[in-house]
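Hi, here's the filled form for the chain we discussed.

Project: internal
Contact: R.S.
Residues: 246
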Amino acid sequence: MSDESSPTSPKKRAGAKKRAGAKKTAGAKKAATRKKAATKKKAATKKKAASKKKAAARKKRAAAKKAAAAQESASLFGRLADAVAAPWKSLSLDSLLPMDALRRIADVGLIDFATEHIDRKVSDEPAFQRDTSFLETLVPMMHTFSRYFDAEVTGWENVPEQGGMLVVGNHSGGTLVPDTATFIAAWYRERGMESSLMGLAFDAMFGIPGVETVMRKIGQIPANPEYAGRALEEGAAVLVYPGGAH
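And the returned structure, exactly as it came back:
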């Protein structure tokens, strides 16, 4: 038997060594691939966990923001409700319709009595009771109200920056008057609370407890030339709807 055919021949030993080396290399490659896959999987898991954590944080912030907005809204509505309810808290049936009032109704009728009541409220109460603190509470609610109607105010470049001026509009909202809420909110957003905006309003609005309070605090005054002239002389902008509500 020749040396080359022997299992221990140099050629066969070299072949076996080469195959062993190739097998070891293949094993190392597989191990490296598995390690790489494991590292990639670990990174993906870590990234997914971080993403979930960020999403949870965003959700938590959104919930906190929503809760804060709800609390602020509740506070705004609560303060408005308190302002509207305040005049009613001290009223009793006797104060609403005392005996002399009942006698007067019997004499002149309910409509004439209501007219007299409104005339007294307009003439006896101070006309100018604009309350900036109350407006600061109400204006954000007016802004929210106007957003429901997708309303906007443009053309500020055509409005004088200061001095008395007459702002004339068309009442298009009936009892809801979104035009007034939109304009008042936009005015104070654009000009600030120091810029007075007075509105000429129907006398009857000043004879309704609660409503009267809100009207006066937001700067509404009875619609007559005397009050309009005084507001203009004091440098206020005066909002008027000549045709009433349509």
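Let me know if anything looks off before we file it.
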